[in-house]
Amino acid sequence: MAFKVACVQFAPQKAEVDKNLDTIAEAILQAQDEGAELVLLPEACTSGYFLEGGVLESSLTSAQLQAALWKRVAGKITRPIDVVLGFYENAEGTLYNAALYTELSPKGPRHVGTYRKFFLPTYGVFDEERFVSRGRDLGVYETRLGKIGILICEDVWHGVLPTLCAVHGAQLILIPAASPARGFSGERIENHDRYRRLFVAVAEEHGVYCASAQLCGFEGGKGFIGGSKIVDPTGQVVVEAPVAEGHMIIGDIDTDLVAITRAQSPLLSDLQSAWSDIRRLVGETDF
Question: Which stretches make up the CN hydrolase domain (predicted)?
Fold first, then answer.
């Protein structure tokens, strides 16, 4: 199966959920016009990332977010298009940093899943665990485009989660992210380069596509890097957005390449063969 993915990076207005949803809806319709079958938007893009004590006021249930999005695009969706976007979720009073996966079609929206961020950073400029709860489930979904995994920003830095996504059949891993720029060397931004190396490593090890959508702009004096990208299963960067500015990239996904790459470099099948022993060793580990 072959299809196009659009990754959208933009600077949301802090805590202005309605205005940000207007921007998101415009991006979805633009991506539809450009032939995308799936649109990925950044982490916390409905509100901005650094809300701290203001998370509750900008939070939504998955149903509320899907309905608000559909209200803005109803009558304008001409064919099925999948959308994944980051938001602060309110689930019966518990707050999460989450990503909604919804399939939009002329008939209406369909909720595919809601993934909750597993690893919450609490170092440097980050203090997420003060304001939201940690997710406890893997986000791999059977979709009309194949098996797709979702990891949110920090999640992809912990190798166990991309591994689990691959073991559970993901052919494409989507990474909505909000990464402030850190580590400057001349014109280079260290964590932007590290993200590229990380996605290449994940793609090569597991024979998966990796697609990311990053926030850009400034919040509270912190600048987000942008640099959204798509990496194919061989580790080649298919397309990459510029840093620091709003942009949409569109890249081709071909699930046949996933199968070919995994046959030529059977690291994933090796992992699956050893899985029972890995589970045993994990069970014997006492942190």
Answer: 3-255
Domain residues for 6?
A: 2-279
pLDDT of the residue at 128: 94
Provide the pairing of β-strand 184-185 with 172-177.
unpaired
Q: What is the CATH number of the domain that holds 196?
A: 3.60.110.10
- In the predicted structure, residue 188 carries a pLDDT above the cut 90: no
- The beta-strand segments (E) located in 10-91 are 38-40, 81-91
Q: pTM, whole model, 2 decimals? A: 0.96
Task: Determine how many CB atoms are found less than 10 A away from the CB of residue 180.
Answer: 19
285 lies in some domain: no
Q: Is 104 exposed, middle or buried (0-12, 13-18, 19+ CB in 10 A)?
A: buried
pLDDT digits (tens, 9 = 90+) for 27-42: 999 999 999 999 999 9
